[in-house]
Design goal:
single chain; 67 residues; alpha+beta; three-stranded antiparallel sheet; 3 strands
Length: 67
């Protein structure tokens, strides 16, 4: 699996600052399938990644972090 955060250009919240929407995606590399997507709270991709990983059933799996 790969976890990646991206800013969606042109996507702004109404009444908010002029900062784009930030999303965190979980992608199954071998099957080429998106597993989950979550808005990154406060543009913090690390917190968003932890939240989106909580959505998945990862019991008994090892999760590592690479920059």
């Amino acid at each position: 699996m790969a976890v990646d955060g991206k800013a969606v250009r042109g996507a702004y919240e109404r009444g908010g600052k002029a900062t784009p929407l930030h999303l965190v995606n979980v992608f199954a590399v071998e099957t080429r399938m998106a597993l989950a997507q979550q808005k990154a709270p406060g543009r913090n991709e690390t917190v968003g990644a932890l939240e989106v990983l909580d959505l998945l059933s990862l019991e008994g799996c090892i999760v590592t972090y690479k920059v």
